[in-house]
Design brief:
The complex is a heterotrimer.
Chain A: E1 5-14, E2 17-27, E3 32-36, H1 43-50, E4 58-63, E5 71-72, H2 78-84, E6 86-88, H3 101-109, H4 117-122, H5 125-145, H6 160-172, E7 178-182, H7 190-207, E8 210-214, H8 218-224, E9 227-232, E10 235-240, H9 242-247, H10 249-261
Helix pairs in contact in A: 3-5, 3-6, 5-6
Chain B: H1 3-34, H2 41-61, H3 66-93, H4 101-122, E1 128-129, H5 149-171, H6 173-183, H7 185-190, H8 195-221, E2 223-224, H9 228-243, H10 248-269, H11 274-288
Chain C: H1 10-32, E1 33-36, E2 41-44, H2 46-73, H3 82-92, H4 94-114, H5 117-142, H6 150-168, H7 172-194, H8 199-219, H9 221-224, H10 245-271, H11 274-284, H12 286-291, H13 296-322, H14 332-345, H15 350-366, H16 374-388, H17 405-408
Antiparallel strand pairs in C: 1-2
Helix pairs in contact in C: 1-2, 3-4, 4-10, 5-10, 5-11, 5-13, 5-14, 5-15, 6-7, 6-8, 6-13, 7-13, 10-13, 11-13, 14-15, 14-16
The chains are: A alpha/beta, B mainly alpha, C mainly alpha.
Bound molecules: adenosine-5'-triphosphate and magnesium ion.
Magnesium ion binds near residues 43 and 91 of chain A.
């Protein structure tokens, strides 16, 4: 079976800087895959290319959701990519600050709804039903992520850890087959990180989706992921199971080298 | 075609372009550093011109030599414009550094309205005659139809200002700090650059060049009112965008291109639509090359 | 309050004195010297210098006090907005709410009969600005797109009616939807080229667009009758009945009341709909909203088009009310005044726009003495508002959704 996400020689240049360098990469159905690497390695840029925020300068991106044909998605707009079933969170939290928590999640549902201008003005039956359903569905997602207490609070008033979880809830609301998380544990305390660990596993099980994770917290990475890709200076330097990666001399060098630089 | 008419338009366009360039520098430098369109920049230019008019009139009554008057009122115009620029930054923009872009823009519009009406109320809504301070050069007599003394002074002054500014930015410590801040303000701060100081200096320099532009153009047209800053400001902004906002050579190039377009457009097409040329130009450039002639296209970091 | 005392300490007074000196120097040439270039005399207005001195001393102290308060408040965001308070009050006492509503209705209906024609005219103008503000609020307040050419759409509505009347004898009621429709179409046309622009460029381009429309109206004599404008535009009729001047002004007043109610009704439904949420998400974070599946292109075009609709509609009413229009009514400053209403009232808030229009249009009318300072004050208020209260007088609150109790068991 084809991988649900595959990149072939994916490359992204910023002027003279090659942030992503010929990366070949796959995620299979139901997997939790981690992408790790030192700061500035190009992980976020890789996400941005896949989700349409940047247009890659070279290579191909293919998706093959369950039961559908393989499709090349290079250069599609981010909203189209999301409609096709890839959803992401942002490393530097980008919530809709002046909307309530529930509304943030409702925005995630946006692309799965159809109400238009006239429906909103005349409050047609279909629109009213759809609105009711979107509130219920969004609330259900908040329950799953454990944010119901904050439902009508402005996103900007949430504690940091809760904001990170809301990012995940909002992405979940788009009904993805692959969830891309950019450093979900950044800034969380050990207790929160542990809960996140369980939540990630739970999300996969409950929603039957695959997860691609960028993370610096190695204990989290090692405990949840089945496969790990390591990048350094934009290049893929290793891939394998957590155990293989732990022993890989290239990886150790990249990380230690990074530390001696710092 | 009439060659002398062509040259007249050519040099006329270059004169306009020089003035736009002096104003556009302020836009582009401020934008480079704090990523804000300073809507009130045109007002700084107007205040410079007004100050020069007031001072030179007062001095004129004492019967002072006109060159001396020009120098004194020019220097004071530069001083006051720079002071207004720096004060404006402290009041209207500094408190909004962390605020959404929209807030800073609205604040800038408010500042522009305030300064315009301040001059209108404190002085007059009418046009005032600007004294002729620049002497007629004898050697320009044969070609005075094509190039007047004032125009020559404008062209030369602009060139000198540009050269000085280039030296400042390329070779001095302040210039280096400015360039570092415009590349990455956070990083510059970490490296020990005093961002607040850099921003203040940027406003001072931008305001000072605008004041020079204000004095020169008023000598050229011979009149001014509280509203001259607005249209000139918008056009200079167009010039800055045309050249690639944030780029200083771009601002100069864009200004000349705009000056010529207007000059030839009004000369050969129609003078009714003088102000429309700039806007249409702006639309076209933003649609087809949003980064401007010399600007680099940029991905917003996500 | 106790820390207010600290501003009377020597150190603080010294700070204020330094600022005072600075502003005295800064404003010296423009405030003190006035040259009469015809008689060649100079007037020295030393009195103004004293005003500046006293004023800047007080204001600089106040400024520092406000700044400190702002930084203290930055931590706790739990300010409750006026709108929220009113809403809660209404929920607690439904009778009070109904009573207040009834009082408003009586006041609105009685107003033109209880006051003069002049007063009615002013109130009609204020109501027109309420609708204009609500329209622009969709673009700026909800969509977060700084639009400085809004008056152009207003002009389209006004000229639509005037020209339809001159050339085809078409009346007010037919022109009303046509004007609104044409403005909408123009809104879409202008939105398309500017879509790719970032916020600040958008402001300049829309400003340029507004100026282009005005310059065309001024110079294209065959089409728009140039600067002299179009006169003798008929006032609205009712089923073919023509009113006398007095009655007509009352009639237009009620038309405006109806249009305000209509606008509020529609805007309220839109802002809490799927589309309205997309507008706000776009305002909050364009990239994130796009990554959540919102089609930014479509959303932007929508805000421009719907915003333009109201301006076009009010343009038609304006032409009918004044019976004379010329390009001078549609300058950039018209757009800026409407922007002030939105910003000062409270971006994104319907109630805020109503309050904003009331303050900005009615106050200068009644305080004639300071009407010449109007634009000066508006400018200052815009800056102060952004610095100290960016949410406006009435900070917007979002809809509170209630979840079925039996479904979740823990809804509030
Ligand atoms: N829009 C952009 N323009 C120019 N350079 C960029 C841009 N985005 C990223 N880069 C550069 O690309 C490189 C990779 O950055 P990226 O953010 O992808 O790293 P990362 O692996 O996510 O690092 P971190 O772990 O710190 O998040 C960096 O050198 C960065 O400066
Ligand atoms: Mg990253």
């Amino acid at each position: 079976m084809a991988p649900i996400l595959e990149t072939k020689n994916l490359t992204m240049d910023f002027g003279g800087l090659r942030a992503v360098d010929n990366i070949n990469f796959q995620v299979n159905e139901g997997e939790i895959v981690a992408l790790i690497g030192p700061n500035g390695a190009g992980k976020t840029t890789f996400f941005n290319c896949i989700t349409g925020v940047y247009k890659p300068t070279g290579g191909d991106i293919y998706i093959a959701p369950e039961g559908e044909k393989t499709e090349r998605i290079n250069g599609l707009k981010p909203n189209v990519v999301t409609e096709k079933g890839l959803a992401r969170t942002f490393q530097n939290i980008r919530l809709f600050q002046n909307m309530t928590v529930l509304e943030n999640v409702m925005i995630g549902r946006h692309c799965r709804l159809s109400a238009g201008l006239l429906g909103a003005i005349f409050r047609t039956k279909a629109t009213v039903a759809e609105e009711k359903k979107v509130v219920d569905d969004s609330y259900e997602i908040l329950e799953e992520i454990g944010l119901t207490d904050y439902a009508n609070e402005f996103a900007k008033n949430l504690p940091y850890g809760a904001q990170r979880r809301l990012e995940i809830a909002r992405a979940m609301a788009t009904d993805p087959f692959l969830l891309l998380l950019d450093e979900p544990a950044a800034g969380m305390n050990p207790q929160e990180t542990k809960e996140l660990d369980e939540m990630i596993l739970h999300i996969r099980k409950n929603n039957k989706i695959s997860i691609l994770l960028i993370e610096h917290d190695m204990s989290l990475v090692m405990s949840v992921s089945e496969k790990i890709f390591v990048v350094d200076y934009g290049k893929l330097i290793a891939e394998g199971t957590p155990d293989e990666i732990k022993k890989n001399p290239e990886v150790i060098k990249a990380y230690l080298g990074d530390e001696t630089d710092a | 075609m009439d060659l002398s008419y062509f040259f007249e338009l050519f040099l006329g366009g270059m004169t306009r372009g020089s003035i736009y360039a002096l104003i556009a520098l302020g836009y582009t430098m401020v934008y480079g550093i704090i990523k804000l369109i300073n809507f009130a920049h045109g007002e700084i230019y107007m205040i410079g011109a007004f100050t020069a008019l007031i001072i030179s009139s007062v001095l004129g009554f004492t019967g002072m030599n006109s060159i001396l008057i020009l120098v004194i009122s020019g220097v004071l115009a530069i001083f006051f414009s720079a002071a207004y620029g720096a004060t404006m930054e402290k009041i209207a923009y500094k408190p909004l550094r962390q605020a959404p872009r929209l807030s800073a823009l609205i604040s800038a519009i408010g500042m522009s309205m305030f300064l315009q009406n301040y001059v209108l109320l404190a002085q007059t809504p009418d046009f005032l005659p600007f004294p002729a301070l620049i002497p007629d050069f004898k050697f320009l007599k044969p070609i005075e139809k094509i190039l007047s003394s004032t125009q020559l002074v404008i062209l030369v002054t602009t060139a000198v200002v540009m050269i000085l500014l280039t030296i400042l930015i390329k070779f001095t410590r302040t210039g280096k700090a400015m360039r570092a801040t415009s590349q990455d303000a956070k990083m510059a701060q970490l490296l020990g650059i005093n961002i607040n100081r850099v921003i203040t200096i940027t406003f001072i320099i931008g305001s000072a060049t605008a004041a020079i532009g204000g004095v020169l153009i008023s000598s050229h047209t011979g009149q001014l009112n509280y509203y001259i800053g607005f249209i000139a400001g918008i056009k200079a902004f167009v010039a800055a965008v045309l050249g690639g906002i944030g780029s200083i050579p771009g601002a100069v190039l864009g200004s000349f291109v705009l000056g010529w377009t207007e000059s030839f457009g009004t000369g050969y097409v129609s003078s009714d639509y003088e102000d429309v040329f700039a806007f249409i130009f702006l639309l076209i450039i933003l649609i087809f090359r949003p980064s401007g002639i010399l600007g680099r296209s940029q991905n917003d970091k996500v | 309050m106790s820390n207010l005392m600290k501003y009377f300490s020597l150190k603080e007074i010294k700070k204020s004195l330094v600022m005072t000196l600075w502003f005295m120097i800064l404003t010296f040439p423009i405030m003190v010297i006035k040259v009469n270039t015809i008689e060649n005399t100079v007037i020295w207005r030393w009195g103004y210098l004293a005003v500046i001195a006293v004023g800047s001393f007080i204001l600089s102290t106040l400024w520092r006090y406000m700044m400190e308060r702002k930084s203290l408040q930055a931590g706790n965001e739990s300010k409750i907005s006026l709108q929220q308070k009113l809403r809660e009050l209404g929920e607690k006492n439904p009778r009070l709410k109904r009573g207040a509503l009834a009082a408003v209705i009586v006041l609105v209906v009685a107003y033109p009969f209880a006051t003069s024609m002049y007063q009615t005219g002013i109130m009609t103008t204020a109501l027109m600005y309420v609708v204009l503000g609500l329209g622009l609020n969709i673009v700026v307040g909800l969509g977060g797109l700084l639009h400085l050419g809004y008056a152009a759409f207003y002009a389209v509505g006004a000229y639509t009616y005037a020209l339809l009347h001159v050339h085809f004898g078409i009346g007010f009621w037919v022109s009303l939807p046509i004007g609104a429709g044409l403005a909408t179409i123009l809104g879409i046309l202008i939105a398309i080229p500017v879509l790719r622009l970032r916020g600040d460029y958008l402001a300049i381009v829309t400003l340029g667009f507004g100026e282009i429309v005005r310059i065309i109206l001024e110079n294209w004599n065959d089409f728009s009758f140039g600067p002299s404008g179009i006169a003798n535009i008929p006032r609205p009729t009712l089923f073919g009945i023509h009113f006398k001047l007095q009655q007509a002004s009352v009639f237009i007043y009620f038309i405006m009341v109806a249009l305000v109610v209509f606008t509020i009704f529609i805007v309220r439904r839109l802002e809490n709909s799927r589309m309205g949420r997309a507008w706000i998400a776009m305002r909050e974070d364009e990239i994130a909203s796009q990554s959540m599946g919102i089609n930014i292109t479509k959303t932007k075009v929508m805000t421009f088009a719907i915003g333009a609709f109201w301006a076009g509609m009010i343009g038609v009413v304006f032409a009918a009310k004044t019976t004379f229009i010329n390009p001078a009514s549609f300058t950039l400053w018209e757009s800026v005044i409407i922007l002030c209403i939105v910003v000062i009232g409270g971006m994104g808030s319907i109630f805020g726009v109503v309050v904003g229009a009331g303050i900005l249009i009615l106050l200068p009318e009644y305080l004639r003495a300071f009407s010449q300072y109007r634009m000066l004050l508006f400018g200052a208020i815009l800056v102060l508002m952004m610095v100290f209260r960016p949410g406006g007088i009435v900070t917007n609150v979002r809809k509170v959704y209630r979840i079925d109790k039996d479904k979740t068991g823990e809804a509030e």
